[in-house]
Amino acid sequence: NAENGPFFTRRQHPSPVAANVRATLLEDPGFGRVFTDHMATIRWTQDEGWRDAEIRPREPFLIDPAAAVLHYAQEIFEGLKAYRLSDGGVALFRPEQNARRFQASAERLAMPALPEAAFLKSIEELIEADVAWVPGGDGSLYLRPFMFAAEPFLGVRPAAEYWYVVIASPVGAYFKGGKKAVTVWLSDDYTRAAPGGTGAAKCGGNYAASLVAQAEAMKHGCDQVVFLDAAERKYVEELGGMNVFLVYEDGSLQTPPLGGTILPGVTRDAIITLAKAEGRAVREERFSFAQWKADAEAGKIRESFACGTAAVVTPIGEIKAAEGGFVIGNGGGGAVAEALRAKLVGIQRGDVPDTHGWVRRV
Ligand code: COI
């Protein structure tokens, strides 16, 4: 499929995991704790550019203790899934969107842009090597492309050497037990991204900075943290690792607009497109926490949900906050989020016609 990508040297080994052990792992993989047998790697050096594309056994690699990533966090990543289709084939969902966002993230972090064809081919070649690890049923193979600064140098400037790597992990639901609705905690003390910062880039640093707020959320019995904007501390931005939507009583949707501080989610974009195709109004307009609460308590907001590659579409049942929280609807999610989720998953698995050209068979 991915024409004109680099040639990948293949160093494959027989799976070190016995078939029956793999079958057991695939039955209930959880999220991000089981890994496949191989990884894709490509190096970049200032002098020679992209080179040495390889599919090789997944194993720890040696990096110099002075590697820039360990000091200044020059690192970006992506997340996308390969799905087992009903006919037994395997498909990706809009992988070119991830390739382009990876380039945009690279630009923001002063890293070299990986050509789209190389990104796509690295993923397809890895899936081919590890196709036995693509789960059936509700599972999927989560692909994690990432790139980090490998040059040993302590000066603060863009590194002259990078590794691009793709690893893969069979996954089930992101939230334990495939929770029907999640509870979120409003972070008073922390924000995620300031104007001019790295909020729109998928860099590890954004997630590192969210951990203390996420830990606070969990201390309050919540599944995720919800962040307000950094400038006014008023408008809802996104959760620790997913975008957020509201569903109003007239069936319309609202989500915070992209604008540099929000991660431009591929799932976010797909939900907007699907909802509009159903005739729903979708407003990409900011809303304050106060509006969320008031409109939910007045019954105008009927549902709220989180979305992302990992989370898919997950209803938000309750918002907890130091200043007082609130419940959305009956706290258990609603029909609109459920229908959008079903349509999205149906397209991804080849059970619903793909009228937008989103599904890429590998
Ligand atoms: C994803 O949804 O793929 C994410 O990257 C969110 C999180 C798991 C980091």
TrEMBL record:
Coiled-coil regions, chain positions: none
Q: Which UniProt keywords apply?
A: Amino-acid biosynthesis, Aminotransferase, Branched-chain amino acid biosynthesis, Pyridoxal phosphate, Transferase
Tagged with keyword Transferase: yes
Q: What cofactor does this one take? A: pyridoxal 5'-phosphate
Q: What reactions does this protein catalyze?
A: L-isoleucine + 2-oxoglutarate = (S)-3-methyl-2-oxopentanoate + L-glutamate; L-leucine + 2-oxoglutarate = 4-methyl-2-oxopentanoate + L-glutamate; L-valine + 2-oxoglutarate = 3-methyl-2-oxobutanoate + L-glutamate
CDD domains documented for this protein: BCAT_beta_family
EC numbers listed for it are 2.6.1.42
Instruction: Tell me the InterPro entries matching this sequence.
Output: Aminotrans_IV, Aminotrans_IV_CS, Aminotransferase-like, B_amino_transII, BCAT-like_C, BCAT-like_N, BCAT_family
* Keyword Amino-acid biosynthesis in annotation: yes
* GO BP, sorted A to Z: isoleucine biosynthetic process; L-leucine biosynthetic process; L-valine biosynthetic process
Tree of life domain: Bacteria
GO MF terms, alphabetically ordered: L-isoleucine-2-oxoglutarate transaminase activity; L-leucine-2-oxoglutarate transaminase activity; L-valine-2-oxoglutarate transaminase activity
Q: Write the signal peptide boundaries.
A: none
Q: Pathway, per UniProt?
A: Amino-acid biosynthesis; L-valine biosynthesis; L-valine from pyruvate: step 4/4; Amino-acid biosynthesis; L-isoleucine biosynthesis; L-isoleucine from 2-oxobutanoate: step 4/4; Amino-acid biosynthesis; L-leucine biosynthesis; L-leucine from 3-methyl-2-oxobutanoate: step 4/4
N6-(pyridoxal phosphate)lysine PTM positions read K202
Cross-referenced NCBIfam families: ilvE_II, PRK13357.1
Function, as annotated, reads: Acts on leucine, isoleucine and valine.
Q: Which family does it belong to?
A: Belongs to the class-IV pyridoxal-phosphate-dependent aminotransferase family.
Q: What is this protein's name? A: Branched-chain-amino-acid aminotransferase
Which species is this UniProt entry from? Roseiarcus fermentans
Q: What is the lineage of its organism?
A: Bacteria, Pseudomonadati, Pseudomonadota, Alphaproteobacteria, Hyphomicrobiales
